[in-house]
Design a protein that fits this description.
Strand order of the largest sheet: 6-7-8-11-9
Structural class: alpha/beta
Number of strands: 18
Number of helices: 13
Strand content: 15-25%
Helix content: 25-40%
Mean pLDDT: 90
Distance between the termini: 57 Å
Largest sheet: 5 strands, mixed
Low-confidence stretches: 1-10, 18-23
């Protein structure tokens, strides 16, 4: 079998479908799971069929067939290794453009053995789909890989066993830019995807990560935790309050979904710690704090200022503010900041508890960089004590 051979003409390489997201036309891509399955299928085909191929087709769980170019083909008497280049479409994914390799070789018996090598993370904590010590290849991609390779066994009439190794040479470095270290996945990235297709700016990918972070804490014995929207909250938690960031889940803008996850997982309590610019929206019942969903920050400040005796002129001045920092400065100068924040926190707590229901204790600490803590809900101290106690006992 030669290492170089002219490609047979076939369908053109998949370029991704166009979809509409947030009033923009964007291109879909394909997942790391699809890349790994396609590479494994191609390697098995070349190993068992004895012929070099330059393109491979793969049917994804979403029902979309991909036609993918094969790169960096390496052939030896024992094994075939090749790669598929990841295409994330218009999704801002750190894995876009990387090569995902599969190596397939014959082995004793009749089983298909799948493992992860260089750049594939290893599970170090409970709470994920795989057991501790296993490669971070999720259930659906694992099934896709095994089915793709088995299809080539049947095609070429081979009844023996095959050893499949998935590697991502850049995976260890890329993992530093992902949630993997927080999820208990060390040494590389995960092979992911439930549909085989990357939807641009997928909210589901983010909410799935939030769920996994909390699930990992729960299955490692923690029923109470902090929740921070992002780096501002994380830094305030650790640097200003001196609490352990390992007990925190990052929720981005998905406040409501995070509360639902906590309820579904049977958590006993969660404490949000976030910047006023984001969490003030909760006082209006807004549970997705992204600006494209709602921006009621100044309306909240203005209405609660009016409830606390602010003049019409001051209310109009607050409505004209562009930032919460500006609004806080105005309220402080008028001597109304404490009263307004107390009023806001009461309403914020009402909506948090309404979403959480009866079985989850919930609270929030709201801060600004300039003023520090601006307000906290009634159960804050109890929540802090529970979280710190669990951390000290773990």
């Amino acid at each position: 079998m030669e290492n170089q051979q002219s490609a047979k003409k076939g369908p053109q390489r998949t370029q991704g479908q166009l979809v509409w997201k947030n009033q923009k036309q964007l291109r879909t891509g394909y997942t790391t799971g699809s890349c790994a399955a396609a590479a494994a299928k191609a390697a098995a085909s070349m190993l068992l069929g004895g012929e070099v191929i330059q393109q491979v087709s793969l049917m994804t769980p979403k029902g979309i067939r991909l036609y993918l170019e094969i790169e960096d083909i390496r052939i030896s008497p024992e094994a075939v290794t090749c790669a598929i280049r990841k295409d994330s479409g218009d999704d801002p994914d750190v894995t876009d453009g990387i090569l995902i390799y599969a190596s397939v070789k014959r082995c004793e018996g009749s089983r298909l053995l799948l493992d992860g090598g260089e750049g594939i993370g290893r599970i170090t904590k409970k709470g994920l789909e795989q057991k501790i010590g296993e490669a971070a290849i999720n259930r659906v991609p694992r099934q896709m890989i095994l089915e793709a390779v088995d299809s080539q066994r049947k095609k070429w009439g081979y009844a023996g066993g095959l050893d499949i190794l998935i590697t991502i040479p850049r995976g260890r470095k890329l993992a530093e830019k992902t949630f993997n270290p927080r999820l208990g996945i060390e040494g590389g990235i995960s092979v992911l995807g439930t549909s085989g297709i990357v939807e641009p700016m997928s909210e589901k990918a983010l909410t799935d990560t939030i769920f996994l972070e909390m699930k990992m804490l729960k299955e490692n014995g923690h029923d109470w935790c902090y929740v921070v929207p992002g780096n501002y909250g994380s830094d305030f938690l650790t640097q200003k309050l001196g609490y352990d960031g390992e007990m925190a889940v990052k929720c981005s803008n998905y406040i409501g979904e995070t509360i639902d996850d906590a309820v579904n997982l049977g958590m006993k309590g969660i404490l949000f710690i976030g910047h006023i610019g984001k969490l003030v929206k909760l006082a209006a019942g807004v549970m997705n704090t992204h600006s494209r969903q709602a921006d009621c920050r100044m309306e909240v400040f203005a209405s609660h200022a009016a409830l606390n005796g602010a003049s019409m002129q001051l209310v109009k001045k607050l409505m004209d503010c562009f930032t919460t920092t500006e609004a806080v400065e105005i309220l402080k100068a008028e001597g109304l900041l404490l009263d307004v924040m107390e009023s806001i926190m009461e309403k914020l707590e009402f909506y948090l508890k309404y979403r959480a229901g009866e079985h989850l204790k919930i609270g929030a600490i709201v801060f600004s960089v300039e003023e520090g803590i601006l307000g906290s809900t009634s159960d804050t101290q109890e929540l802090l004590e529970h979280i710190q106690k669990e951390r000290s006992e773990s």
